[in-house]
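Weekly structure sync - notes
Attendees: PM, LS, DV (DV joined late)
Agenda: review two folding runs queued last week.

Item 1: First target. Sequence and structure tokens pasted below for the record.
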Amino acid sequence: MINTSKKLNGKIALITGASRGIGRAIAQRFAAEGATVIVTGRSLDQSVVLPGTLAETVALITQAGGRAIALAADLEKPDERDTLVARAADAAGGLDILVNNAGLAEYSRVETMPLSMFERTLDHYLRTPFTLSQAAIPLMRARGAGWILNLSSVTALAPIRPYNVFDSDGGATVYAAVKAAVSRFTQGLAAELAADNIAVNSVAPSTAIRTPGAAQYIPAAYPTEAVEYLAETALALCHLPAKERTGLVTHSLHFPLACQLPVYSLDGRELLPPPTLPEVAHPHIVPSGA
């Protein structure tokens, strides 16, 4: 069954960290729904850290009939980060959707974590969404509506007792704490912007997605999930008016099941099976979003 809904027809979306992984998948899914997607990462055609480039993302989208614009930006550099939203709006003629996805997870136990790693984690996952959202809000308000989507993590939920090896030795505490802050940032910003018809939501994998950036932290035997379910959840959070869907902290397998959403391939051409929840899923996830 081919999806012909085009929920994002005429919309302009800026997606950070779109050279690979989750960001690329969201860009492909949004483009399949008719959006012009502005994809950003550190470089256009040469991988700096991990496999995948913006040029490859743009090629995948255009080959599928979508429209994509690549803008290089190193979000660790304040001058590039602070001007990104304005550059994106100039390149595409406005901005309707902001997806705060970029980041490179670094894990270390608190006792031994270098201060530089702590500061990078804050910059990647809290300062950057704050800065980009702040710049995007006036543009969205001027257009009468908007959507901000923040990428979170299931690690933002408290570890379950008895603690497993990942919780005790995996070094995810600071990363998880910042992702928990992202959830609260999402809910608070949603309240601030509801009157402006700007929806603010977040999505996280229900388990884990084996992307180039995350693979090193995921045990080989761990039951990971397909990225298509997260991309479909992202789409569901970025097209309804704020009065209908805002302030939600969602998870990629749980939300489509709870809302009975059809899930499509990234190009929108194939209907996928409904997600199934593995036994390892965190028991405190709220299926329809918290």
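Item 2: Second target, run right after the first with the same settings.
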Amino acid sequence: MHHTRPWITAGVALVGAGLVAAPVAPMAGPLAAVTVPGIQLTATDMVLDLVRHGLSQDNVDHILGTTPPGAPITAEGAAQAAFLADPTNPQHLQDPDFYNGIYASDFLRTQQTAADWLAAAGSPDTPVTNLAGLNELSAGIFEGKEQTEITGLLYLLGPISWMFGNYWMPQLGSTVDVNGMAFQDRFSDAIDQIYNNGGTVGEDGNLHDVAFSHGAAITTWVMMNVKNPDFGLYFSGLQQGLLPNTGQVVIEGNPTDGWTLVSWNGHEVAENPGLLTGLFVDFRDVMVAPQMATWHIIEALQGGDPADITAALQTGFTDVFNAFAAFPQAVIDTLTSAAGDAAGGSAAATGDVLGDLLGSLTA
């Protein structure tokens, strides 16, 4: 039932991987798990299911359409949306009443997907909140163009750079997602709004929400923000179109303590990253802070409000100072945890060998 974007093929994946070969290559192999140090959470966690829309007419016509309201979903897209309510679907959604809130972008294709799922679930009158921050990643100069390997690669060139901490890489011709800072701000604002809307905490102690968004926007923001990014899943996903229609990425956490990737299109993701991934996240966090601070100061200067300028300078200084102050300890914690896991793994392996030997002697 799932259709993918034909312009994202193995060729795109190979070029994208080549762009970031240095950091990605060592992460692709099996790595020792890292135990993240215990963190005192300061806020309730939210489990957020980010769902890509059903098959749209733009998908069928191979058009790169990223300006709302966009094309509607097709009859097959409506069937895909309805299948989200079917318990036989490995990625079926919970009953609508389970969620504290249901959200969609400003696009027809996400709103129709949400509506068709709700109708199939027997709750057609359940309200859906539209958030512009959930909109698709802007295509810039490629808006409305045919989706090919070349346009697909150029469309994702900036976002791939953002995932590795280079937020200044522009999105060619975009006035919405000018660069990684602009995209980070607008999508994060939507996630924060969903979280801040609160609701009833579930039996697991978490808030639960579902948001219907878009393939490029979902995967880009998740890879930019989670503590355990799985680059292997992302780059292999490029060959099939990032996410299939109605494919899902689930995250858990909160804006204060950060986000953890739970699953990617049905594949569970380890909470604790490998050593190299853990170190990458440490470096990424310290790289991103001054870029975001500079961007916010530039925005304030362009606005001309002295109060906004002062606030941007103060907040930016604090954020950068905190990021650099936390960096050495973060690296030490990552290395220490990796060493502890390696020792624990060795001890467990030795115990298994001794247990087998004892079993053979007493058999």
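Discussion on item 2: The domain at 10-268 is CATH 3.40.50.1240 (Rossmann fold).
Action: LS to circulate a short write-up before next sync.
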